[in-house]
Amino acid sequence: MVRGLLSTSFSQPLGAHVASDGLRGYYIDFRVKAPDPQWPPAGLMPVDRQLHVDVAQWGLGAFEHFLATDEERWLGAARGVGEHLISSQERDGRLAGGWVHERDYPHTFPLRAPWLSAMAQGEGASLLLRLATTLGDERFAEAAGRAMLPMAIGTASGGVLAELGGGPFLEEYPTDPPSYVLNGALFALWGCRDVHLALGHAGAGALFAEGAGALVDQIRRWDAGWWSRYDLFPHPVPNLASSAYHSLHISQLTALDRMLPSTGLEPVIARFSRYGASRRNQARATAAKVAFRLLVPRNPLLARRLPWARTA
């Protein structure tokens, strides 16, 4: 029960079908997110209640299944997600290009609707570009390009761009003050990289380079000295990563190091790996996460009744 509550039970390893000369497999293997090729899946929320990250990751998982099996049913499932992303993408106004969340985020971060997620924008673009390359359908590529529009807009204006250490930071949850979620920023940056590689989008390329540089320069902020932090939001207590997210951080930093081998991330990856290999640290991290969830619960009704939540 505790493992499910604390997100310790999913596996998201490095992707096995990544191409060095183009877009093929995704950098993280999301096949666990798509257990069967039925689109839409039975558990999908109505559009006004969806977390668009879940949709994009389901599609990336289906596409990874296709690469692993060459079965058309998996490509058809991924294409279904792509069609959904095109039809649900905002076309006009200040949120143009975005996949808009129409409800408040229910826990952990104070976030009122409507809001966008840089992680959803990046992962959605990454899926759409792989579909465009595989299917030869430019509609998917055009939607991926539009997904970059909110990436250049500050969070105060409805976009997803924040600042950290003098450089750009893409916000999975565009809160005030910024939340600085590590895994979400990396997924968002990869979407920028993919748009640059596939479409020659100079702005996306610059944002990837500058954002990756800023993140690497500030990576010590997510290092608790014995484990990694999930985010930097000023919660009542620090939000340590669950064991699954700590492993994901290692995989993501490894993937980033392969993209940008001159960043000097190897010592960080080795240090985070040592943290994760320690049973003492694993137990300490679980205890810290339980304490965090007692103070910042997932239950939205309980969370709203806490004094610090009401203040936020």
User: What is the 3D form?
Assistant: globular
- First CA to last CA: what distance? 29 Å
Class by alpha and beta content? mainly alpha
Using the coordinates shown, work out and report the CATH topology of the largest domain. Answer: Glycosyltransferase
Number of helical runs?
12
What's the total number of strands? 2
Spatial ordering of strands, largest sheet: 1-2
Query: Stretches where pLDDT falls below 50 for ≥5 residues?
Result: 1-5
Number of domains: 2
CATH architecture of the largest domain, by name, is Alpha/alpha barrel
Helix content: 40-55%
State the CATH class of the largest domain: Mainly Alpha
Q: Biggest β-sheet: count, sense, barrel?
A: 2 strands, antiparallel
How do the SSEs run, as a string of H and E? Answer: HHHHHEEHHHHHHH
Mean pLDDT over the full residue set: 93
Strand content: under 5%
Radius of gyration: 19 Å
